[in-house]
Amino acid sequence: MEKSPYDVLGVDKRATKEEIKQRYKDLAKIHHPDVGGDHKKFQEIQEAYEILNDEERRRKFDATGSVKREPSNEDKFKHFCIQVAMPIIQGNNENFDLVGSIKMEISQMIGRVQGMMDQTKAELRKLRLVQGRIKKDETNILTGMIQERIKHLIEHEKNLENDIDFLNYCIDKFGGVDYDFTPGFNQNQNKGWFTFKVDM
């Protein structure tokens, strides 16, 4: 849905939850498919109501203007397993520590992200130092450029922090894996050489 949920429901941005709920009910009586309304129109109304009725999603829309729902860590974890875990399985022979290899890969990823975080923080410090040396009443192309770059770096830093949080979440998830691995074990001795159970 690309339209503002406020516009879809026809409510003010200062509308209370009760006002939003009442407006949704009024529109549902007109546009619900059961009473002859258009399905797509009603779906749009329903999506708008779901956004404005959820305090966190409403705050996010007010702050960013975006109505997109962020995928949950659980959704991202499943995608992560496909993108990271499966290549590790396919690229190794049968006698290797799957969970240990995945955790090592995640740790290396955290290290790379942390390196980018350090670089971002260092650039932010430099830019803020330069910004502090410009006279307060001075407004020119340089100050505008610096402010825009700082804004971009702050957003980038936040994204990197979220990446690290998610990667730590993945390590915790794999910590609950029941994996039976014996170094040097010959698979021919036992066809059921490992169990791999992740609570997803």
Radius of gyration: 25 Å
- The number of helical elements comes to 7
Order of SSEs:
HHHHHHH
Uncertain spans, ≥5 residues at pLDDT below 50?
185-200
Number of strands: 0
Distance between the termini: 29 Å
Shape: flat
Biggest sheet record:
none
Number of domains: 2
Broad structural category: mainly alpha
- Classify the beta-strand content into a percent band: under 5%
Query: Would you tell me the overall average pLDDT?
Result: 82
Helix content: 55-70%
Describe it.
The structure is a single chain. The chain has helices at 5-9, 17-31, 39-53, 55-64, 73-90, 98-133, 141-175. With 200 residues, it is mainly alpha-helical. It has two domains: 5-64, DnaJ domain (Helix Hairpins), CATH 1.10.287; 73-181. The relative contact order is 0.09. The model is unreliable at 185-200 (pLDDT under 50).
Concise overview:
With 200 residues, the protein is an all-alpha fold. It has seven helices and no strands. The radius of gyration is 25 Å and the shape is flat.
Question: Characteristics of this structure?
Answer:
67% helix; mainly alpha; 2 domains; Helix Hairpins; 200 residues; 0% strand
Outline the fold blueprint.
Elements: H1 5-9, H2 17-31, H3 39-53, H4 55-64, H5 73-90, H6 98-133, H7 141-175
